[in-house]
């Protein structure tokens, strides 16, 4: 089969306080894995790579001496004070402190020298320290061209929406949090709510809620594109979608930044909301712990299984299990397991459409791409509407235990 070669040489981007350069790859336009072409440029950082000198510190609960007032702002301020106090104990400059997590973790991100790391990890207040890493869109391959541009000849119902039981005009009070590359704020087919929007980026072109990549907008459309006379329609049509921007225009970010987004959702979300995470990378205990803690508040977390054709137990946050957490694998329109999809029961709970999925894109346009990134929002839409049902089982599941196909 002919395989397209997607070339994406990134200029340096700031992640975790460091200037990095990436090739990042997201979703696929077919079930084959496109070949990466590096040409003559040396690409230093890719998905899962350690960010040198950047760490995530999680504190022991019994070592917490401050009181939280229950508000996001109050908890953040209290945690920042505690973090600075701990750093000052070892004469570590407070300028090295990054994100603080006052809701889902008692922890923070920080830049440390090797000597500072050694002394801090042995402090009795510290539960564990892990290295910060690069994380990107669902561990797959960046979509090629196509999509973008305005205009539509009329609304169509994508095959994936039909396969999960069709759409419903949403009338509930909950929202869908999209932890991704942002959402195109002016897309005419989306009901974007920015009042609780978040961005992990404090400077540059990504220091806002708007999507400059396309991926987050595509995810949002599958969940909740409006039932009107243009474009496509989502599972929970017209539901509010909230941008939680933890990945940049290249589709990459840091584990520390993603945890900051989860911390935001855990503080601002309410029971019955859904939070879609179509991203992933190597195992991160801190990220897993954050997702589990946020889900304990009744927020439904929906996680892409990943696109590496491997066991999802080797990927975070896909491997997390909990009563309000669902991990989603991908299939094609014939109910056949997608060759790129991760697998494993647990953590996979359902399979959903993830091949040639048509949804909203940049510049008011639409695009068809593939990946578990596309499967996960189908499930998020179903769960926003209520409890999930099963509509058959996927064929050719490589783990030999066919995943149930989600349906509303």
From TrEMBL:
Keywords: Hydrolase, Protease, Serine protease, Signal. GO terms for biological process: proteolysis. Pfam families: Inhibitor_I9 (PF05922), Peptidase_S8 (PF00082). Residues 55-136 form the Inhibitor I9 domain. GO terms for molecular function: serine-type endopeptidase activity. It comes from the Bacteria. The active site is at residues 180, 215, 373. GO terms for cellular component: extracellular space. PROSITE patterns: PROKAR_LIPOPROTEIN, SUBTILASE, SUBTILASE_ASP, SUBTILASE_HIS, SUBTILASE_SER. Residues 1-26 form the signal peptide. Residues 178-385 form the Peptidase S8/S53 domain. PANTHER family: CEREVISIN-RELATED, PEPTIDASE S8. Belongs to the peptidase S8 family. This is Peptidase inhibitor I9.
């Amino acid at each position: 089969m002919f395989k397209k070669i997607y070339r994406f040489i990134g200029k340096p981007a700031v992640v975790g306080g460091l200037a990095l350069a990436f090739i990042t790859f997201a979703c696929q336009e077919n079930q084959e894995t496109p070949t990466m072409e590096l040409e003559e440029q040396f690409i230093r950082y890719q998905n899962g790579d350690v960010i040198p000198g950047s760490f995530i510190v999680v504190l022991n609960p019994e070592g917490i001496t401050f009181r939280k007032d229950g508000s996001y702002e109050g908890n953040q301020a209290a945690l920042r004070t505690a973090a600075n106090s701990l750093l000052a104990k070892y004469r570590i400059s407070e300028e090295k402190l990054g994100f603080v997590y006052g809701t889902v973790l008692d922890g923070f991100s920080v830049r440390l020298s090797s000597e500072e790391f050694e002394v801090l990890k042995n402090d009795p207040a510290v539960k564990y320290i892990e290295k910060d890493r690069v994380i990107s869109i669902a561990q797959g391959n960046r979509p090629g061209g196509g999509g973008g541009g305005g205009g539509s000849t009329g609304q169509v119902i994508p095959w994936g929406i039909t396969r999960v039981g069709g759409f419903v005009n949403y009338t509930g009070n909950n929202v869908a949090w999209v932890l991704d590359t942002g959402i195109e704020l002016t897309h005419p087919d989306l009901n974007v709510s920015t009042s609780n929007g978040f961005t992990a980026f404090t400077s540059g072109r990504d220091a806002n809620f708007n999507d400059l990549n396309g991926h987050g907008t595509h995810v949002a459309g599958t969940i909740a594109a409006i039932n009107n006379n243009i474009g496509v329609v989502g599972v929970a049509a017209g539901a509010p979608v909230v941008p939680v921007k933890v990945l940049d225009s290249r589709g990459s970010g840091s584990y520390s930044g993603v945890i900051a987004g989860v911390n935001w959702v855990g503080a601002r979300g309410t029971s019955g909301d859904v939070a879609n995470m179509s991203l992933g990378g190597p195992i991160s205990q801190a990220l897993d712990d954050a997702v589990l803690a946020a889900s304990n508040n009744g927020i439904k977390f929906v996680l892409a299984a990943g696109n590496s054709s491997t066991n999802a137990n080797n990927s975070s946050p896909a491997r997390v299990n909990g009563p309000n957490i669902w991990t989603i694998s991908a299939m094609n329109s014939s109910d056949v397991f997608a060759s790129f999809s991760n697998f494993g029961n647990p953590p996979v709970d359902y399979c959903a459409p993830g091949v040639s999925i048509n949804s909203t894109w940049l510049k008011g346009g639409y695009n068809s791409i593939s990946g578990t990134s596309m499967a996960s929002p189908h499930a998020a839409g179903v769960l926003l509407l209520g409890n999930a049902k099963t509509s058959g089982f996927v064929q050719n599941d490589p783990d030999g235990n066919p995943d149930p196909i989600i349906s509303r």
